[in-house]
């Protein structure tokens, strides 16, 4: 019984990391109608930046603060210099451009940090285990669940309860109308893109002490993020949260029940949801 409880908690933690990645992807698509195939590469870059920050300073908390902000700044520069030029083009052009960005980031990471994976230790204060009766669970993984839930709450508040969120939602419906009301839509798009990509960088920092950092994880994590978005529905915050948790739990539980099929069952879950709801659990036609 403890094994399944352990795996269930692992699935929730994994699902929250998947949520942080996919919510940025779905926000960017919902507002900008832009398909960002470089999203996984920014997750990778966030993980590597946290590795460097921890190696130089020995302080994981500093890395947790610096790396996502650095990724958001890099994303903002990328959006202002390159991405904004392809907003009006068909999705095929957007995919080609962002795939190019992803390959550049991956090669830069290999050039700087090498092709061999890196490990990051959790902070000293979270290296212990939580004990409840005869059940033990790593404290860092509990921290990931709690911290990701807090970030999810803050993102929900930002998108649902603030003027910025109202503009983002209005812009996703009619960008021209929002512009006519006096909002600088290009600046809104840039901030939204940086926010979404920064969340992917944050996910990379949180996942690094659990899964390590390897230069080829970007395409894998991008595939999972798209599965989450398809399950939850394009442009849906709630869908990203529910989809992330569903994928995380399926993957984690299947590693105990059927290890060889854990990745396969993620796509099986996606196919099952599409059969029932072609636009995802919370998607709109």
What would your notes on this structure say?
With 285 residues, this protein is mostly helical. The chain is 75% helix and 3% strand. The protein contains 11 helices and 2 strands; from the N terminus they run H-H-H-H-E-E-H-H-H-H-H-H-H. A two-stranded antiparallel sheet has the order 1-2. The longest helix is centred in the first third of the chain and has 31 residues. The radius of gyration is 19 Å and the shape is globular. The chain starts with a helix and ends in a 9-residue tail after the last helix. The model has no long low-confidence stretch (mean pLDDT 88).
**What is the assembly state of the chains in this entry?**
single chain
Strand order of the largest sheet: 1-2
Low-confidence stretches: none
Number of strands: 2
* Distinct helical segment count: 11
In whole angstroms, how far apart are the ends? 41 Å
- CA-atom Rg in angstroms: 19 Å
List the secondary-structure elements in sequence, H or E: HHHHEEHHHHHHH
Q: Tell me, rounded to a whole number, the average pLDDT.
A: 88
Share of residues in strands: under 5%
Largest sheet: 2 strands, antiparallel
Shape: globular
By secondary-structure content and strand pairing, the structural class works out as mainly alpha
> Helical percent range?
over 70%
């Amino acid at each position: 019984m403890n094994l399944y409880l352990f795996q269930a908690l692992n699935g929730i933690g994994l699902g929250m990391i998947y949520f942080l990645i996919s919510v940025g992807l779905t926000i960017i698509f919902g507002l900008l109608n832009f398909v960002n195939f470089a999203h996984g590469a920014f997750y990778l870059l966030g993980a590597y930046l946290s590795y460097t920050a921890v190696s130089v300073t020995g302080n994981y908390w500093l890395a947790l603060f610096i790396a996502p902000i650095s990724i958001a700044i890099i994303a903002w520069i990328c959006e202002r210099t390159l991405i904004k030029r392809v907003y009006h083009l068909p999705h095929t052009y957007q995919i080609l451009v962002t795939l190019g960005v992803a390959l550049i980031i991956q090669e830069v990471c290999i050039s700087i940090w090498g092709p061999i994976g890196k490990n990051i230790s959790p902070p000293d204060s979270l290296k212990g285990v939580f004990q409840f009766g005869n059940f033990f669970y790593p404290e860092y993984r509990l921290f990931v669940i709690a911290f990701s839930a807090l970030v999810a709450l803050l993102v929900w508040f930002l998108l649902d309860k603030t003027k910025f969120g109202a503009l983002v939602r209005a812009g996703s419906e009619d960008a021209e109308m929002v512009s006519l009301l006096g909002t600088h839509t290009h600046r809104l798009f840039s901030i939204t893109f940086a926010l979404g990509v920064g969340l992917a960088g944050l996910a990379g920092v949180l996942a690094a002490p659990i899964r390590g950092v390897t230069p080829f994880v970007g395409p894998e994590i991008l595939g999972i993020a798209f599965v989450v978005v398809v399950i939850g529905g394009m442009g849906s915050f709630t869908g990203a949260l529910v989809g992330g948790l569903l994928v995380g739990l399926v993957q984690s539980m299947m590693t105990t029940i059927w290890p060889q099929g854990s990745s396969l069952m993620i796509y099986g879950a996606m196919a099952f949801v599409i059969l029932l709801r072609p636009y995802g659990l919370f998607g709109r036609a």
